[in-house]
Amino acid sequence: MHLLVCGGTGCRASESNLILESLKRELEEKGLSSEVQVIMTGCFGFCEKGPVVKVMPDNTFYVHVKPEDAGIIVAEHVIKGRPVQRLLYVDPKSKEQVPDSKHMGFYRKQIRIALRNCGFINPENIDEYIARDGYASLGKCISELTPADVIDIIKKSGLRGRGGAGFPTGLKWEIASKNKADQKYVVCNADEGDPGAFMDRSVLEGDPHSVLEAMTICGYAIGASKGLIYIRAEYPLAIHRLKIALKQSKEYGLLGKNIFGTDFNFDIELRYGAGAFVCGEETALISSMEGRRGEPTNKPPFPAEKGFFGKPSNVNNVETFANIPVIISKGWEWFSSIGTEKSKGTKVFALAGKINNVGLIEVPMGTTLREIIFEIGGGIKNGKKFKAVQTGGPSGGCLTEKHLDTPIDFDNLVAAGSMMGSGGMIVMDEDDCMVSIAKFFLAFTVEESCGKCAPCRVGNKRLLELLTHITKGNGTMADIDRLKNMCNVIKDTSLCGLGQTSPNPVLSTINNFMDEYVAHVTEKRCPAGSCRELMKYSIIVDKCVGCTACARGCPVNAISGERKGPHFIDQEKCIKCGACFEKCKFGAVLIK
Amino acid sequence: MEKLKSLADLKRIREEAKTKLDLRVRGDNPEGLVQVKVAMATCGIASGAKQTMDFFVEELDKRGIGAVVTQTGCMGYCYAEPTVEVQLPGQESVVFGYVDRKKADEIIEKYIKNGELVEGIIPVNYEKID
Ligand SMILES: Cc1cc2nc3c(=O)[nH]c(=O)nc-3n(C[C@H](O)[C@H](O)[C@H](O)COP(=O)(O)O)c2cc1C
Ligand code: SF4
Ligand code: FES
User: Fold this and answer.
1) Test the A interface: residue of B1, B74, B94 with most A CBs within 10 Å
2) CATH architecture for the domain at B28-122
3) A23 pairs with which residues across the strands?
4) Which of A191, A278, A461, A492 to mutate for ligand 2's pocket (most ligand atoms within 8 Å of CB)?
5) pLDDT tens digits for range A185-216
């Protein structure tokens, strides 16, 4: 028998290590330590109910366990084999106690559709993919369904593009299929330039065949015989695995001529990008693939009409494609039963920032931020207070405390002033300054703007300057209005999605954290204590013993005072480097 | 490799591959092989998954334990890389996090040899569709 005690950050904070010790002690006293092992584990993804203890092999799941409960667990469960009723998890819906973790709803908080094979099969072996019903959907499409049937299934499934905008995939395919041409293309967007997002990389590294299969299905549906994957050269492992996958599926004849003995031909090639964010925008992506500069063009015409070398091209995201084979095999009814009314299926999120369980998760659309951050994500690092989460990367906005219980889907995120984007979730805590966060994303867009149109090229730069101005304590209230104004102009007049969304982080932080902007400009104070220029260093006279360590450490000689006497910091000279704070052994340096 | 000319060909390959994979999943492997899967995506490799994988391959062999060591993609627990899934014959698989050489050694000596669990288990908290 094993007793698993959660040693994740959340449970550890509520003394799970004491539970572990008490259990060991109890077992020792009863002479059971050789038969029953107590083991500390990683997070169960259930931190709100922690500390958690699980008994194996019967899978009994105890919640809110206290060190004092060790005695009864050993006496009742271990010795008499009777689970301790009052520690069992109570299902919030049925209000009933759940005897073991196999029946617990929370294990179903995550459903893996796009990630179904990631971390399960060997991505470099096509047979393992086939064993998991791989390529059966392609077979079914080609031999049993007409292209119109396939499009109909995808339309009915309600699948929306996972690359950012959430455009209905079936509709996109339908448009591409109706455009007549001698050559059409299926393009997979694997550019993934959003900082903090890595789900597409994981899919390509963990399950490349699912994308190849889906692209081939798409080719059949829209009447294309050629596929292109645009992937950034910064993803060498994903490229390596894709190459192996391409080779294997060609050898099996799953790509190439006369697939499954029919007259359908389809082939896929790789195209490499140099890692520019704007090249993820579909028209820029196509220009880049054509060997031209990666600059967006006006839409219309959309790629479905005039895409790669002027031919109709259907562009979809990696994760969008990864859903396709499952929709075909399990049916659109099944897929559309998951999620919310207008956003079906699941979404993969990359959790990053001040969260305990950094990683990839896949949850049904409609899951709340609270469930994602505090249960699956294990809560905020170091027990700090949650402040905001940025979704949609540099094109999105921040969500705050008041959005914690909003079911997440495409439309709710837009209504909350953010967007789904590719699925990056950057979590921020009380130490993060929201003006600086806006500045961080703006700096990214300024760097990544292609420079084709003035509002984005010049406007974003001016926005960044204003933000920098404010974080240095030189801003005025009029600057905040100026920011807002400029944001709206940039949004309205930029050519492509990059410029049209780049002011979002600024607008949403102003909307949600106006008080922080105001503190920066009127009080010259950074409430989160993160803007260096706004910090004031001073010495608490009562605590200063006159050791002179600070004065000797100050690089600009801003500190004066006699040995054994109190010291002072000349605010004019101080460059706020923090050296004195680090040098002082008596805690006499105060930062405000 | 032969070309698959029809759905029937695919089905045949699937059945063969399934038998192999099923054995791995259910674990009632007649030869009693231990299965070790190392998550080898960029996040894992960056934290040393390659070294961990090499260690398992070499050491299991040296210590005379019949095992199949394979690579797989990201399991999603990026905070605890390298992650490794171990399945003893006839048992449910267990995922371990932060598996460096030292931990790998402990896993071989305690869990694989004696079935004694060691610290570092990551409870799997998702449902995977079939
Ligand atoms: C600046 C910018 C960057 C983008 N980056 C990506 C990207 O990295 N990956 C992606 O799939 N879509 C990206 N998109 C969205 C694409 O233009 C396009 O809408 C998407 O690939 C369509 O696929 P979907 O319908 O499957 O989502 C980006 C859009 C913009 C405006
Ligand atoms: S909005 Fe920005 S990125 Fe888009 S075309 Fe204009 S300058 Fe280039
Ligand atoms: S830390 Fe114990 S369940 Fe998350």
Assistant:
1) B74
2) 3-Layer(aba) Sandwich (3.40)
3) none
4) A278
5) 999 999 999 888 999 999 999 999 999 999 99
